[in-house]
Amino acid sequence: MIQENYKSLYNSVTPDVALINDTLRRINTYKKRKTRCRRPAFRRPAIIIAALMVCMLSITPVLAANVPVFYALLYKASPATAQFFMPVQKTCVDNGIKMEVLGTYIHEDTAEVFITLQDLEGNRVDATTDLYDSYSINRPFSSSATCGLAGFDPETNTATFLINITEWDGHAITGDKMTFSVRRFISDKHVQKNRPLDLPLAELGEAAAIETYCTGYGGLNFEKYNPDAGTQRCTSRVLRPGEVLSTPAAGIDITGIGYVSGLLHIQTAVYDGLKGDNHCRIYLKDQDGNERQSDFSLSFIKYGEEGNEDTRVEYCDFVFDIPSEEFDANNLYGDFYTSSLYTEGNWQVTFPLVPTEPDAEHMPVD
Q1: d(C-alpha 15, C-alpha 66), whole Å
Q2: How confident is the model over 288-320, as pLDDT tens digits?
Q3: CB-side exposure of 215: number of CA atoms within 13 Å?
Q4: Quick one: which of 198, 236, 204, 240 has its CA closest to 219?
Q5: Least confident window among 24-38, 61-75, 248-262, 271-285
Q6: CB-based contacts of 235: which residues, under 8 Å, 6+ apart?
Q7: What is the average pLDDT value for the chain, to the nearest integer?
C-alpha cells in the first residue's frame, strides 16, 4: 500500500525550494547546537543521508522530466529506475504541434499504444505523415517495437500512430511507465512508380570515374563485385558526378550514365537528404515488361562546401552487369519517393502501463 501511494504522489512532485532550504538549515542548526546530553556520533550521518534522500526524492522526477542528459544517463544505467522517476505526462505541445496519448491496450506480452499528432497552427500533419525513424521508445523491459500511421482526421489535422511493443521471450508486460519521444517528422509525401526515364543513351561507353569511400551499399550480388565488402572502410569506383541529365522527381536528379570497368552505372543525386526521405530505385525493363534489378548499388556523399550541410548531396550508383548490346534492348525505369515538408520539435509523453483501451469515439478511420 505504501509503495502504491508513493507512486501516485511522486508524479506531481516539484522541487520545493523552501523544503530543501529548511532541511539544510536544520542540518546546520543541529551541527551547531550544544547540549549537555551528547548524542552518539553515528546518528549524524543518518540525518544527513535522510536529508539527501528527501532532496533526491523531490528533485529526481523533475530532473528526469526536464534534463535530457540526466534522464539519458539514468536510463542507460537502469531503465526501470529511469522510468520509475519519470513523471506521467500524456500531452506535449511544441512548435505548434500537439502530441497526445490516446490510449493503451496491454495484453500478455504485447502493448498497443495509440499516439496522436495534431497541427494546431497549419497543415504540416497530413495523411502521409512519417516519423522518419526519429522516435524513441523507452521502457523498463527488453522488447521489440514498431510504429506506424494508423489513420488521419482531415477535419482536425490529426494523425494517429500505433506503437506495437512485444516483450522478449513471451514474458508478460511489466513495469510502471513508458516514454515515447519524437524529434522530427516529414509529410506531403509523393510516390511515382514505373516512371520511364528519358536519358541520352547514344554511344554509351567507358565513363569518367572516381574512387570514393562508400557510405552505403546494397544488392544481393554486392560481395561478388566488391571483395572488400564488410570491411571498416570500403571504397569503390563510381561515376564522376556530372551535369544534370534529368529530373524525374523534385529533389532527385540523374547525374550520370555510362560504363565503369565493364559495368553499367546509372547515378542519382538526392538533395536535402537529412530533411526528408527522398530516395529511388532504378531498374530495367525488356520489351515484354520483365524487370531486371541492379546487381548492386553504391552510395557516397559530396559537399559543395566542405562541412556545410546545406550543400550536401547524396549520390547513388545503380550498377548492372549487362553488355551494351543487351542493354539496347531494355528501357530504363524508376520508382521515386519524395516529401516536401520537414518539421522539427521536441515532443515527449510518458504514460502508465495499464490495460486501458482507446476511446472508440476517437479512433482513426481510414
Answers
A1: 12
A2: 889 999 999 999 999 888 877 778 999 999 999
A3: 8
A4: 236
A5: 24-38
A6: 211, 212, 213, 214, 228
A7: 76
- For 133, 188, 251, the CA distances from 277, given in Å and listed in that order, are 10, 11, 10
Sign of dihedral through CA atoms 286, 292, 296, 302?
positive
Q: Backbone phi, then psi, for 42, in 5-degree steps?
A: -70, -10
Coil/strand/helix, residue 292: strand
Ranges of beta strands (E only) in the chain are 91-94, 97-107, 110-119, 135-138, 143-153, 158-167, 177-196, 209-213, 216-218, 235-239, 246-249, 252-260, 263-271, 279-285, 291-292, 296-303, 312-320, 331-352
Number of neighbours of residue 142 by Cβ within 10 angstroms: 10
Length of the chain counted residue by residue: 366
Give how far Cα 153 sits from Cα of 118, 131, 135, 188, 365, Å. Answer: 9, 17, 21, 15, 8
Mean pLDDT value across residues 355-361: 55
Rounded to whole angstroms, the Cα distance separating 281 from 249 reads: 12
Q: DSSP per residue over 90-143, as a string? A: -EEEETTEEEEEEEEEEETTEEEEEEEEEESSSS---TT-B-TT-EEEE-SS-E
Beta carbons of 213 and 235 less than 8 angstroms apart: yes
Alpha carbons 215 and 303: distance in angstroms, whole number = 14
Sign of CA dihedral 235, 239, 244, 247: negative
Give residue 364's pLDDT band: very low, low, confident or very high (50, 70, 90).
low
Q: Roughly how many angstroms between the first and final C-alpha of the chain, as a whole number?
A: 44
The grid cell for 27 is 542540518
- Quote the pLDDT of residue 232: 57
